[in-house]
Amino acid sequence: STMEETDREAVATAVQRVAGMLQRPDQLDKVEQYRRREARKKASVEARLKVPRLINLSVCGSQVMSRTSNLIGNEELRKNCLHITFREVIFKIFAYCKIVSFKLFKNNSYSCSLGFFLVLLLSFPEIVRETHDLIERGELLQAHRKLMDLECSRDNLMYEQYRMDSKNTHDMNLIHTYFGDMQKLSEELAKQLWMVVQRSLVTVRRDPTLLVSVVRIIDREEKIDRRMLDRKKQTGFIPPGRPKKWKEKMFNILERTVSTRIEGTQADTRESDKMWLVRHLEIIRKYVLDDLLVAKTLLDQCFPPHYDIFNRLLNMYHQALATRMQELAAEDLEANEIVSLLTWVLNTYNSAEMMGNSELSPEVDVNSLDPLISQNVVDQLLSKYMSTLTSNIIGWLRKALETDKKDWIKETEPEADQDGYYQTTLPAIVFQMFEQNLQVAAQINEDLKTKVLLLCLQQMNSFLTRYKDEAQLYKEDHLKNRQYPQCYVQYMIAVINNCQTFKESIISLKRKYLKMQVEDTLSISHANMDATLDIIAKEGCSSLLDEVFMDLEPHLNELMTKKWLMGSNAVGTICVTVEDYFNDFAKIKKPYKKTMTLEAHRRVVVEYIRAIMLKRISFKNAEERKEGAERMIKEAEQFRFLFKKLAAGSGEDTEGLCDIIEAIAEVIKLTDPSLLYLEVSTLVSKYPDIRDDHIAALLTVRGDASRDMKQTIIETLDQGPSQPNPNYVPIFKEITVPTLTVPKLLK
C-alpha cells in the first residue's frame, strides 16, 4: 500500500542520513552530539508537521543514535575485541548496513522493517541478555525466536560481505567477533533442549507442552540447516556453526539415554545376590515395556510424523538390549545364569510380557525383530551349560550317595513310605534334582530338554554302578562285625526298595519329558539301568538271606545227627528264626519280597538236603530208618506251612521243594531192600540232576546197602528215562558231597 511505501522511504532516508554522519571512525566521538541535534530537529518537526512518515524516520534515526551511544560505552564488548577497536567494528557494521539497506529497500526482500534490522544490530548485547534470561526461565520458544533474529542479522551481514569480497577474512572476522556471544547462547539453549530430550519419557507425562516446544525448536533449526545448505550449493557461503544438525544430536542423545537406562538396571552382583541376573533381566523387561508403551501412546504425538519417533526408539531399545545381552553372554556365567539369560533372550523378549504385548501391536511385530544374540553365541552358551551341568550332576549324585551312606550306619531305623516299606531319601533327592533341571531346560526349548534328559539318564547309569559297589562294601563291612551297623538289615531292605523306586521314577521321567521318537536311543540305556537295579536288589536280598542262614547255622548243623534223631527241636528253631527275620522282610516291596520268600524256601531245602548228604548219621536198623524218615516228612511239612504263610497264600510251593525232602525220606523209609533200586530210580527220574555221589551218600545214610549193591544201582540208573516236574529248578547241582567218608577213614 501507499502507506507502507512511505514508511519504507522514511526508514531508508533515515538510514542514509545516519550512514552519512558516520563516514569515518573519528565521527563516532560525536554520536551523542548528533543524537541531541536529531532530538531537537524531531521536536521541531513534530511541532510543525503531524506526519507519521517523518515521525517514523525521526524516531528511527534517534533510536539508532541512542543505541550507538550505548554500545560505545559497553566496556564488556570492548574487552572481547582484543585486536580491533570498537569504533572500527561499529563503523564497519554501519558501512554494511548502508549497503544492505539499499539492497533490501530496492528489492523489498526482507520482511522486517529496516529500522528494526538496525535496532536489532545496535541492541545486540541487550538482546543477548534478554535471551539468556528467557533460557534460564525455561521460556525456550521465545528465547529461540530472539536467537533466530540475531542469527538472521549476522548471517545476512556476513553473506553480503562474502558477496562483496569473499577473500576479505578480516572484515568477516569483525562481524563474527561482534556476534560472538550468540554462539554461547546457542550452546546454552541446546544444553536445555538436551536435558529435556534426555528426560523426554518423563517430561511427556508431566509437561508435554515443554517437549513439544523443544521438538518445534529442533524442527525449525532443521529447516534453517536445509535452507543454508541449499544456499551453500548455489553461492558457496554458509554461516559459522551451520549445519547445527540438532535433529541428529537429539537422536544421538536419545540413543545414549536408552543405553544408559538399560545398563543402569543392574543393581546387584553375584557376590551380593545369587539371583542378580534374574533381577537385572526382570527390571530391564519392566522398564523397556513401560518406556515403549509411553512412547507409543504419548511421545508419538509430540513429534512430527516424519520423525518416526516410535520406530526409531524401538530400534534403539533393541540395539541397546542386543549389546547388553552380548555383554552378559561374554561373562563367566554359571549354569543357572546361562538358563536365565537364554530363557529371557529366546522366550521372554518376544512374549506377551514384553515385545509381544498386545498394547504394542501392530507397531511391534515380534516376527520381524532380529535375534538379540546370534545362533553361534546361543550354541556356545548351550554347550557351556551342558558341560557345566554334566559336572554338576556328577557332583550332586556323588554327594547324594555320600549323604545316603551316612544314614546306613545310624542306630535308628530308616523311614517307611505310606505303605510301610522302608526307604531312604536318595531316589527322591536324585529325581527331584533331575526334575528341576528338566523344567529349567524346558523353559529354553524342546531340544535342550531332550539333551538334559539323556544326560540325566546317562549319569544315572554310572551312578547305579557306584550304588551297587557301595551296597556290596556295606555288606562286606558288616560281615567283619555282625553287631555293626545296628540297623544293617533295615537299611539293606531300604536299599532293595530304592531299586524299585528308581525303576518307577525312570519310567515316570521318560513318560513326562521324552518324545516318542527318541525312545529307541534310550531303550538300551534303560535296559542297562534295570539290569543294574535288579542286580543290586538281588544281591541285597541275597545278603539278607546270608544273615538269616548265619543265624541258622548252628541249628542246621544239628540236622541228621544222633541228637536230631533223638528229638532235637532244630527245625522248630529254624522256622521261628526265619519267621522272625521275615517280619522285617515284610518291609521289602512286593516284587523283591516274593523273590526273597522263594529264595529263602529254596535255601532252607538245599541246606536240609546238604545235611543229609553230609552223612553225619547212618541208620542202624529199619526202626531208625522209619523214625528218621517220618521225622523228615514231618519237618518237610513244617517248612511247607511256614513258607506258605510267609508268601501270604500267593507263593504256593510250585517248585515242589518240600516234595524232594519227602521223596528222599521214602528212599530211607523203604523196608524191602529188593525194591530199593525201583525207589531210587523213581527219585532220579523226578530230579535228573542227582549225581552218583548223591545216591551213594543217600544209601550210606540208609545204612543197609553193601558196596556192590550201591555200584549195581548206580550203574543201572544211568540208562533210566527221566520225568522231571516242568517247574523243577535243579537243586542238587548246588550240593557237594564230601569225598572222605567216615567208613573209609575207619578202614
From TrEMBL:
Keyword Cell cycle part of the UniProt annotation: no
Q: A GO BP term, please?
A: protein transport
Where does this chain mainly localize? other
Compartments where located: Cell projection, Growth cone; Cytoplasm, Perinuclear region; Golgi apparatus; Midbody
Q: GO CC annotation: what is one?
A: Golgi apparatus
Question: Which InterPro entries does the entry mention?
Answer: EXOC3/Sec6 (IPR010326), EXOC3/Sec6_C (IPR042532)
Q: What's in the keyword line of the UniProt record?
A: Acetylation, Cell projection, Cytoplasm, Exocytosis, Golgi apparatus, Protein transport, Transport
GO molecular function annotations of the record: SNARE binding
Pfam families from the entry?
Sec6
Respond yes or no to whether keyword Cytoplasm is given for this record: yes
Give the protein family.
Belongs to the SEC6 family.
Q: What does this protein do?
A: Component of the exocyst complex involved in the docking of exocytic vesicles with fusion sites on the plasma membrane.
The record describes its quaternary structure and partners as: The exocyst complex is composed of EXOC1, EXOC2, EXOC3, EXOC4, EXOC5, EXOC6, EXOC7 and EXOC8. Interacts with EXOC3L1. Interacts with BIRC6/bruce. Interacts with MYRIP. Interacts with SLC6A9.
Q: What is this protein called?
A: Exocyst complex component 3
Query: What organism does the UniProt record list as the source?
Result: Piprites chloris (Wing-barred manakin)
Q: What is the lineage of its organism?
A: Eukaryota, Metazoa, Chordata, Craniata, Vertebrata
Originating gene: Exoc3
